[in-house]
Amino acid sequence: MTDIFNYTQSEEVFSAAQKLMPGGVSSPVRAFKSVGGKPVVFDRVKGPFAWDIDGNRYIDYIGSWGPAICGHAHPEVTTALQEAIEKGTSFGAPCVLENKLAEMVIDAVPSVEMVRFVNSGTEACMAVLRLMRAFTGRDKVIKFDGCYHGHADMFLVKAGSGVATLGLPDSPGVPRSTTANTLTAPYNDLEAVKKLFSENPDAISGVILEPIVGNAGFITPEPGFLEGLRELTTENGSLLVFDEVMTGFRISYGGAQEKFGVTPDLTTLGKVIGGGLPVGAYGGKKEIMSMVAPSGPVYQAGTLSGNPLAMTAGIKTLELLKQEGTYEKLDAITSKLIEGIILSAENNGVVINGGNVSAMFGFFLCEGPVRNFSEAKTNNAELFGKLHREMLQRGIYLAPSPYEAGFTSLAHSEEEIDKTIEAFDQSFNSIKNY
Ligand SMILES: *Cc1c(COP(=O)(O)O)cnc(C)c1O
After folding, report:
1. Burial degree of 297 (CB within 10 A; 0-12, 13-18, 19+)
2. Rounded to two decimals, what is the model's pTM?
3. What is the pLDDT of residues 183-242, one digit of tens each?
4. Which atom of ligand 1 is nearest to the CA of 121?
5. Which residue from 5, 32, 40, 265 could staple onto 239, CB 3.0 to 4.6 Å apart?
6. What's the CA gap between 253 and 268, in Å, rounded?
7. φ, ψ at 240 (rounded to 5°)
8. Mutation choice for ligand 1 from 245, 266, 304, CB with most ligand atoms inside 8 A
9. d(CA 85, CA 83)
10. How far is Cα 107 from Cα 92, in angstroms, rounded to an integer?
11. Measured in whole angstroms, how far is the alpha carbon of residue 90 from the centre of its chain?
């Protein structure tokens, strides 16, 4: 198709950016490497929309990679932030807002009895790992192929989307001695986990996973998988950790653990709980969390942690989500979207499988079901790249990688969903003969 949107200014800014920052970005996947073409440079966001600096408008299905679940720049969130900013941006001292957000998180998330705030999901996962080792006195951890837990050394093994997108199986700079303690298993494969436990008796501190995967594309746990992990970890004196940085407050108010009724020992959070400002958190049983400094010996600290702006955006966002009918609405809109995408692919003879859980969705251009990352990689990545560019030209902003989940928000109405499905229909029609 001939270009409808003009990207002159985006192209100018991005080529300047490439001389200033590695790859021109502050986080790798934003560079559009896996879909080809150049990234668009954003000017502003509001509700379900994003505008680039050339003035093109997009319906946005990334939502800043998760935080924008109430829609971008929700007026209640921005008003609360404006009021908070008058009192200062950072205290470096206790503030009432921390108690408030902590109470909200503890009330909502079944496993969390105590919580520590940090500044990102990466930081939360890094800290939780230290705590897992300290509590059990064991060094090894089991993670799953394709799950992303931030970029700490120990987790950069088979770490899903960002790394997979760049074709780096691992990262240079990560010492072998560090990742020697990271054991991996295919997602949804309890037998492989059992085997690791029997090969490493009394050495495994715990199992960490995304309870619904969003960093290897969108992959759901098969019935019994989470329950099985709960049993295996308990039997072996290990901890079960749900990384709910993406799923927390997105697939239900209490996260995946509430949705599936499986309670881990520890949980990491991020994205939504910061309402668009940098926040992460880890929490769990009092007995374990009491080991964190200064109440216990496990050191972890942060200059800007718990700062009043981030706490304010988080509190407001959770208040909005807590209202009656929120998750029903998110589920209805997202189901309608993914059903429409699948139908329009099929009508155009494009092989597809996909689904959603509440406001998180995804699809692969291959036969399903996809149960793990190696099955995800049978996805037709080249066709996805073409689809991505076609959709961009039709004003739809999808994650620039086939191995990322998509996100809807409370601001996405039926009208945006209908427009999006129409754009999919036209795009599939235009790429089907490649
Ligand atoms: C995004 C993400 C992280 C990392 O969070 P950052 O805030 O980007 O550091 C960790 N785990 C999961 C499951 C994520 O989706």
Report:
1. exposed
2. 0.96
3. 999 999 999 999 999 999 999 999 999 999 999 999 999 999 999 999 999 999 999 999
4. 5
5. 265
6. 15
7. -105, 125
8. 245
9. 6
10. 25
11. 26
Q: What distance in angstroms lies between residue 165's CA and the mean position of ligand 1's atoms?
A: 16
Q: Token pair 């769990």 is at which residue?
A: 284
Distance CA 274, CA 118 (A): 10
Question: Catalytic residue numbers?
Answer: 148, 243, 271
Q: Could you list the beta-strand ranges (E) of 280-371.
A: 280-284, 353-357, 360-364
d(C-alpha 276, C-alpha 271), whole Å: 7
Q: Whose CA is nearest to atom 5 of ligand 1?
A: 121
Contacts of 434 (CB under 8 A, 6+ apart): 382, 383, 386
- In this structure, the strands spanning 266-269 and 239-243 are parallel
Residue showing tokens 């229909």: 425
Count Cβ atoms below 10 Å from residue 274 Cβ, excluding itself: 26
- One CATH from 3.40.190.150, 3.40.50.1240, 3.40.640.10, 3.40.50.2300 for 75-321: 3.40.640.10
Report whether 299 contacts 293 (CB < 8 A): yes
Residues 184, 141: Cα–Cα separation, whole Å? 8
Q: Domain limits of the chain?
A: 1-60, 75-321
How many whole angstroms separate alpha carbon 150 and alpha carbon 245? 10
Position 233: which residue type? T
Probe residue for ligand 1, chosen from 143, 155, 241, 246 as the CB with the greatest number of ligand atoms within 8 Å: 246
CA-wise closest residue to 137 among 196, 202, 198, 194: 202
325's CB contacts (< 8 A; 6+ apart) are none
164 pLDDT above the threshold of 60: no
Which one-letter DSSP state was computed for residue 15?
Answer: H
Question: Do the beta carbons of residue 391 and residue 40 sit within 8 Å?
Answer: no
**Cα(73) to centroid(ligand 1), Å:** 21
DSSP helix/strand/coil, 52: strand
Q: Which two tokens stand for residue 230?
A: 């709960």
Do 114 and 290 meet the contact criterion of CB atoms below 8 Å apart?
A: yes
Pairing label, strands 266-269, 280-284: antiparallel
Distance 121 CA to ligand 1 centre (A): 4
pLDDT of 137 reads 98
Using a 6 Å CB cutoff, which residues line ligand 1?
120-122, 125, 148-150, 210, 214-215, 243, 245-246, 270, 280
- Cβ atoms of 389 and 37 closer than 8 Å: yes
Q: Is the per-residue pLDDT at 2 higher than 70? A: no
